[in-house]
Amino acid sequence: MKKIILNLVLLFFLFIVSAQENEFGTYYNQRLSLFRSLPDEPNEIIMLGNSITDGGEWSELLPGYNVKNRGISGDVTAGVLYRLDEVTSGNPTKVFLLIGINDLARGIPADTVFKNICLIAEKIRATTPGTEVYIQSILPVNPSFKKFAGHIDKTNAVKQINQKLKNWCSENDVKFVNLFDAFIESDSDYLDPEFTNDGLHLTAKGYLTWIKIIYPFIKS
Which residues contact 91 (CB under 8 A, 6 or more apart)? Predict the structure, then answer.
């Protein structure tokens, strides 16, 4: 019954969103058209998210694994839900999800962001039960760079969502990956400047730190 309700909610959600596909933006639709044209392969590991994921050269960061970049700059939880069919079509072995900061920047309430992330995980598990889903905590931000004004004042909301995600994952047998704590400054909850040059996105050291955290899950 829970799965039926989930699918009905998702179908209703996508019915509304499908009429607004172009509202996801030009770049979103460019990337999605490319993703849909690429062949599915065995043993795919999907990196799923927004610009922070989009910016990673995952096949080079994780050589020897069939890692696919399914990040789209500017994406939000609704955009991920809309394109999940492409993500699950190849029955990936693992999906690493990082999404939510752009939702907050657009004024979407933290509780809605949390629920949408959980819905993404539930939909993946319902569609491809063999896929291991990893929900990664939303990364910290840093206002000192004075860029991305809509994003960098969301630290409290980010922490709230991350705590709820951690609890939800524990209760629902989904793996939670705590990136947040490894990326903050020692004396604050802000993104450490050694990992960023704009307060939101990652430099090389940030991606290498990210890899160090998720590698045990990649190889397991």
Answer: 40, 44, 128, 130, 131
Give Cβ neighbours of residue 134 (< 8 Å, ≥ 6 apart): 94, 95, 96, 97, 174, 175, 176, 177, 214, 217
Amino acid at 92: P
pLDDT tens across 134-161, in order? Answer: 999 999 999 999 999 999 999 999 999 9
Note the residue count of the chain. 220
Q: What is the pTM assigned to this prediction?
A: 0.90
Residue in 53, 138, 125 with CA at minimum distance from that of residue 94: 125
- Identify the residue whose tokens are 């029955």: 91
* Residue 33 neighbours by CB under 8 Å, 6+ apart: none
CA distance 129 to 175: 14
Q: Bridge-partner residues for 48, per DSSP?
A: 70, 97
